[in-house]
Amino acid sequence: MIRSTTTMSKQQPLTKSNNDISLHSSSHSSTSSSSSTNINNPYSMRERRHTMALFESLSQSYESFDYYENENDENDELERNQQLSDDDDNNDNNDNNQEDESNDNIDIEVDDSTSSSKNEINNSSSRSNANTNISKKKKIENKDNEWSTDVNNINIPISSYAYANYHTHTESLSSCQLLQCFISKFITKRWVSYTNKYSIIKTGSSINTTVNELYAFISVHIYMGISYLPRIDMYWSQNFHHPFVTSLFTRDRYQLLSSCFCITNPNENEIDDPASHTIEFINHLNVVFPQHYIPSQYLTFDETMCAYKGRSNIRQYIPSKPHKWGYKIWCLASNSYLLKLRLYEGATDSDSEYGKTYSLIVDFMKGYENKNHILFIDNFFTSPSLIHYLATMNIAVCGSVRLNRKGMPPSFQINKQKLKQMKRGETLHFQKDDVCLVLWKDQNILKLLYNHIQPSTKYNTLKRWGDNNEKVEMSVHQAIKDYFVNARSVDVLGQLHYSYPVNRKTVNATSSLVWWLIDICIVNAFTLYKTENKTLTHLDFRIMLMNGLAAMFLSDRSASQASSASNQRIPLAKDHYSDISCDSRRCSECSTPERRKRTTYICVDCNIHLCLGKCFAAYHSKLSTR
Q1: What angle separates helix 185-203 from helix 251-260, to the nearest 10 degrees?
Q2: According to the CATH classification, is domain 269-522 in 3.90.350?
Q3: How much is the pTM?
Q4: Domain ranges of the chain
Q5: Which parts of 392-477 are beta strand (E)?
Q6: Residue 387: how many other CB atoms lie within 10 Å
Q7: Which of 258, 267, 331, 444 has the greatest number of CB atoms lying within 10 Å of its CB?
Q8: Cα(455)–Cα(438) distance, integer angstroms
Q9: How many angstroms separate the CA atoms of 15 and 6, rounded?
Q10: What is the dihedral sign for C-alpha 611, 616, 622, 623?
Q11: Which residues are registered as beta bridge partners of 317?
């Protein structure tokens, strides 16, 4: 019995004090003396078994750490067990001597188990206390870094909040000179060399084009963007021929130039690959675009599309764009002037732990740090980590954001139910460190992250469409108005391009991208020209540029024929071309006493007012038959 009890003491720590040990040893002595029938013993065997069962249940409860936290219950149980052990010792005085040695051994072993249990309990309690302290510290730190609805002043990473006086280095230049800032004669000479090389590869003989002929080739494309016909050969047909086009090129010469036009070395790069075909020209534009324009404080980064529905391994589909199929191009712009661009060639691995868009923005903003710029981006790029990093470059950010981005407020602060309850014009504000989040309800909810102004900035007004299809003024935060006004530079570039596109529909994978790049040069030239001539429209600038490039194509040969059947002479484009007059007069071709029509366009050589397009062509076709 003693041996088995000792083993149980090693496996399960039964006691915490020496009183419990005496209780254990006394219960043994009482059991051994039960053979000598002690009638005076007040406790029966049933009561002793009940006491041992209570003792075992008490010892098992010692294993729980929670038990030791209730010291009052422990003392009550120990006092009651001590009284039972004292009564047993008084009734078993005859057997105490025999049990002393065995009880001493039991005391030693139980003391060891008791001390080890104490150490384990103390260690576990200390670990639990340490973990509790760490968790409390983390909760305090997280509470300090959580998004809060109490907004305070922030540290703005820029020194001022005002427009920078943007300017150019191209004052007092003509439209042709502005275009030559980007497509210089040096670049055109290289294109001439590449085109002649490619014509030898394709046809077996060189087409022997020149620099002025390529400028005239661009001029014809500008004209076709203004006066569009469904098919190319219609410009040389008897019914629809246009003197401007036919005076510069014959139909066969134009088609030969179109099929052999090349802007990269055909011996080194693949002609059918849009990326390799245009990489040289794109790198050139990324150098010359910033050289001729100092941007304002506001920069915009976004993607745009070069429309193309043919087959290409880098063609993209973006359903939110006006032209859903085509080449995706990353653009950095300021005041509708393109500063930097990059062709998207497919997904690549990112070196940053924050994602590919994070690395893309940081790469584009190199060279614009520490210049007090404010970058406007959309929700595809915006994240709190990007704003914090750009702040180290002294670049502020204002951009729409997605609520599921990492670092955004949790769902219990902004949930769908709370967003549905917002009324139109209502605003919610949150702040974390130096980054602010504003939610504004219009037709939909605009979610905006910013750090370029203080959250306490006065509200402004913004005109929006009301329920009755009328514009109404709505009170908005200044950050929201800044985003509406300044985040659309890249979109304006796309609008200007697709107003009068110079490219034609084709199955050639590279042609659409090449002409998109050339047209962006024209749009940038218009932006530079408009800084000094604010009243000039986009169409007027293109007509002026078209005529200027055509006049550069000096040739002593007669004008090309309108068709192979007729042998009529059409005036040269350098003599007869449209220009803008200071006054508006009746068109000499279509205006009648019953239906008067006035125009500001005039033929330079004939000195008469003619509507651009059909009236101009019809009048000069009559002259050619005289």
Answers
A1: 100
A2: yes
A3: 0.66
A4: 2-134, 181-266+532-624, 269-522
A5: 395-400, 427-432, 435-441, 445-450, 460-465, 471-476
A6: 27
A7: 331
A8: 9
A9: 12
A10: positive
A11: 325
